[in-house]
Specification:
Strand order of the largest sheet: 1-2-3-4-5-7-6
Distance between the termini: 167 Å
Structural class: alpha+beta
Radius of gyration: 48 Å
Largest sheet: 7 strands, mixed
Helix content: 40-55%
Number of helices: 10
Number of strands: 7
Order of helices and strands: HHHEHHEEHHEHEHEHE
Strand content: 15-25%
Length: 293
Amino acid sequence: SSFAPARAPARAPRVAVARRRRAVARAAPAAPSAARGAARAIERRDAPADAALGAAMATRLRAPSRPRVAPARASRRSRRAAPPRAIGVRQVAGEGAALVDRLRACAEVTAESFGADESSAVSVLDGLVRKVRYSGDAFALLEAYDDGASDGEEERLCGCADVTALPAFGPRASKETLVARVPIALGLTEQSNYAYLSGMCVRESHRRRGVGVKLLEACETCARKMTPTPAAMALHVDSDNEGAIALYEGCGYARVIEREVDDAFGRMSRALGGLVGGKKKKILMSKWLSSRE
């Protein structure tokens, strides 16, 4: 006979599964109650913080509203820009060292306005001293100044110009080639006089503020007071200086077509393209102060 091993009871696994199912069933209803208990514990823990937050919100709602802040545009409007300081024009006068100091100040302004160095200022000063010495009452130097009295600052020179009354012809006529050709270009007679304007300059910081117009008006006023009264005002300007040309034209000056002068200087200038007498081409402009002769 053969030996057969004993089999395990068939119902044992089924009993174990049933037991596990009953354990799960008993534990399932306990889960919601545990969750509810945990939620109650959290509520009890956070209750003081929630009460403090609610009190703070209530206080904020009862607090008066803050005043409305004006928009930034209104504040900018209130900060108005300071008005520009007044510009005055006067004639330079004096004697001795005081006059030389004023002439030196004008020479420095002229050199600075044209972007020149100190050596150029010395040359300008030498020219002004010569005009004062030899022209006398036929010469007037005008200076424009920035009146800083309202701001408690010292006044500052911001421009200058000079005008000289000259006879059209004769021994006292100008010997400078550029100026000597003016009477012929204007068609003046031998008995005529004209006023030549030079040294017109304005500091870069004061441009487009009407300084040039005031200087021109002051020069014309001085020219009309000279004896004999000049028939016209004349000046030369660089052909590429569009700003200055516009200024002169706005004040009544007109371009003059110069007649060809058949001399050595004229022929040489035309041949070399204007290299003689300066690198830049000059334009003659004039304004009649009296009826044309």
